[in-house]
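Researcher: I'm preparing a figure for a lab meeting and need a structural model of a single chain. I don't have an experimental structure, so a prediction will have to do for now. The sequence is pasted below. Please return the structure as C-alpha cells so I can convert it later.
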Amino acid sequence: MRVRQSVLTVLARLTVPACLLALFGVFGTNAARSAEVPTIRFAWVVAPTQLPPYMFSKDGIARHLGKSYRFDTVHFSGTPAMITALAADQIDVALLAYSSFALAVENARMTDLRVIAGEFQDGVKGYNTNQYMVLKDSPIKTVEDLKGKVLASNSTGSAVDMAIRAMLREHHLNDRRDVTIVSVAFPNMRATLSEHKVDFVATPLPFSRDAQLLAIARPLFTQVDAMGETQMLIWVARAGFLQKNHAAMVDFLEDALRARRFFIDPANHQEAVALAAKFVKQPAAKFDWLFTKGDYYRDPNGIPNITALQSNIDTQHRLGFLKTDFDVRKYIDLDIVKAAAARLK
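Model: Understood. Here is the structure written out cell by cell.
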C-alpha cells in the first residue's frame, strides 16, 4: 500500500505527458514480460491414446505453465492438415505419424522440421500392437485369402495403412492390383465391416477394444507382424521455433515428462484413467487398458526409437510413398527433451 501511495504522489506532481511516461515505466515492464512468454500451440488427433491434450489436467503437474510458457491444444482430424498448419505457422508442435513426417520433409520441403520427442510405440514386446481384423465367420484365414477383397484403411499413406501394404507385399500381393483399399474413418470401421461393405478393417486403439467389434471380428494379423516395432507418433517442431524458445521448451518438456510419468505409473492408474475419461466424456470403465501393458509403449523420458523410426520410413520408401532415401538422423534434435528429463532425476 505504501508503494502505491508513493507512486500516486509522484504522478500527481507530473505533467500529463510525463505522467503517461511514468505509468509506462511502472506497468510497462510487467506487460513486456508477459508478452515475452510464448504460447506453445500443440496439434493432436485422437484421445485418450494421445496424452498431450489432457496431460496437464492433474493439478500441480505443469509447474512452469503460465510462467515461462502458455499452452494451447489444437485438434485436427488427421496429420496431413498439421503439415499445412506447420508450414503456415499456425501451430508450433505437432503429433505426426512417422509417415506424415517423412512426407512433410520430402513433399512439402520442410527440411527444418525436427523430431523432439516420441509419443508412443507400437509392437514393443509385452505391449499393444494394432489389430487388422476380419469377421469371425469370414472365409479369410490367411493374408493370401485377401486377394480380390475390399480392405478398409483410414487414409492412404498413413502409418496404419503402411502396415497393410507391407503385409500384402510380404505375401506377394500387389496392394494396387490384387485388392481394393478404401478409406474409412476409424469410428466407422465396425459398422462398415458388419454390414459387409468391406472384408477387412484396421483397428488401432481405442477402436480395437470395442466390445461390439470383438463380438463379431477376429484378428488376421497385427502391425508388429507387418512392420516390426513402430515409432508410431513423434513430436515435431520447426528448428527456428526451437531456437527462439529454447528455455521455454525445456520447461514445457519438463512438465510434459512429469505428466507422462504420473499417467503411466501403475500406482496412479485409477486416477489417470479417470482424468482421461473425463476429457473424452466417456465412462472410465471403457479405458481400463489405458496406461497398462495393454496400451502402446510410452518411454518415460520421451525418447523415440530412432532405429524403428528409420526402419518404418525405409518401408515407406520401399512401398513407393517416398521418392528418395531418407536419413532420419538429419532431423533429430533430442537435446531439449534430454535436458528436461535430466531435471527430473
